[in-house]
Amino acid sequence: MSSAAQLSARERIASLLDDNSFVEVGALVTKRNTDFNLHQKESPADGVITGYGLIDGNPVYVYSQDSSSLGGSIGEMHAKKIIQIYDLALKVGAPVIGLIDSTGLRLQEATDALNSFGEIYLKQTLASGIIPQITAIFGNAGGGLAVMSSLSDFSFMEKKSSHLFVNSPNSLLGNNKDKLDTSKADFQAKIGMVDYVGDTEQDVLNKIRDLICILPSSNEDDASYDECTDDLNRVLTNIASELNDTKKALIDISDNHYFFEVKSEYAKEMVTGFIRLDGMTVGAIANRTEVTDESGKVIERFDGTLTTDGCNKASRFVNFCDAFNIPVLTLTNVNGYKTTVEEEKTIAVASSKLTYAFANATIPKVNVIIGKAYGSAYITMNSKHIGADMVFALPSSSIGMMDADLAAQIMYDGEASNVIKEKAAEYAQLQSSAEAAAKRGYVDSIIEPDTVRKHLIYSFEMLFTKRDNRPAKKHGTI
User: Fold this and answer.
1) Does any domain span residue 182?
2) Which range of residues forms the domain containing residue 389?
3) Is residue 423 part of a domain?
4) Tens digit of pLDDT for each residue in 289-320?
5) Contacts with 440 (C-beta within 8 Å, 6 or more apart), sequence order
6) What's the pTM value of the predicted model, to 2 decimals?
7) What is the pLDDT of residues 141-176, one digit of tens each?
8) Do residues 200 and 252 both lie within one domain?
9) Residue ranges of the CoA carboxyltransferase C-terminal domain (predicted)?
10) Are residues 282 and 187 in the same domain?
11) How many CA atoms lie within 13 A of 30 on its CB side?
């Protein structure tokens, strides 16, 4: 089958699932409403195909909207089919995958259609944190469908034909589609609404298969493992040159250089994704100061600060990992918060969410300080102060309140430059070095860069049976 052509709703399911594994549920369900000439229109499967099947042997439940049947619009029975799939998935503990291609609410069904949207939202909310929810957009996902996508854990879009929007571009004050198409995949990826954009529909479906294979099936499943064929003690000979572009460092650390990145186009100064260590799925979060191409040429540079977007990106990722018992690794290199007027409006709230996410998570948490670790921004980045189980630091790392030169200038204001220089060197040795932090117990071990992989593997193996009892509460408020 050509991946260049747009697939039908059934072809999408067939391409997504293992061969001959799909079992349809509710094939004969159709609309009950006959108002406004609906009785004259055929609606096979009421515009959505639902059922279950396998991805690489893993059970999944799937619904695929059929735009050729009433535009794939959501009405009463259409929604009931999706809700039934959620009910079955929750009973057995399996992911739900939604393939979206719909004109939205079915106008002829009015309040029944509104009720249908609400019932789907409720079911998605109840399923959140219990089973993984994935949506992929192949056509239109407007209005309430954008909410369905955002209630999922991961969202995918096909680059050319898909559209995701709450309000259409032409309805936005001062905008039109030709000026800025806010519904396109590229735009949505850059603002963090979408985790992955595929060039073709088949590319998106293959990426979903890849994701399913590394995630647990539910919050009670601990089977997100694969056989490790990589050397557990592999020396990372190139990692010293990869510490600025930490995406490359994570790829190097992972088993067989595997890395599944999420939201790659959003807040590029913060890398998030999944790696494998000794076959175990690990969520990875890393500060990044450079983006480089395959030849090592620098494409983009960042100043090493925490941003609002970076915090929001990381905090949601940590929450997902915590919900599904996926251990978390951080590579920390941060020198403070972004200092702009716009950031000042939002950074306190965003950083508090990231601080809360790390502190609240009860999963195994390991931090490697690979560069600077300054001020409260460092505390936010999975420090031992907020509950990291193991903290490693590279010998060249710097940990403290701020840069030693700046600290000396503040403490010895008015002194001669040679005095300030001398005191800066003293401050760097006594207060800002990795050794100083280790002496106080804030760093567990100072390790060489080429040994990072084996230290991480041993740490996560040691933490595998971690238990963390917390005070009883309904939920936090951050």
Assistant:
1) yes
2) 239-394+447-462
3) no
4) 999 998 889 999 999 999 999 999 999 999 99
5) none
6) 0.92
7) 998 899 999 999 999 999 999 999 999 888 888 888
8) no
9) 231-476
10) no
11) 11
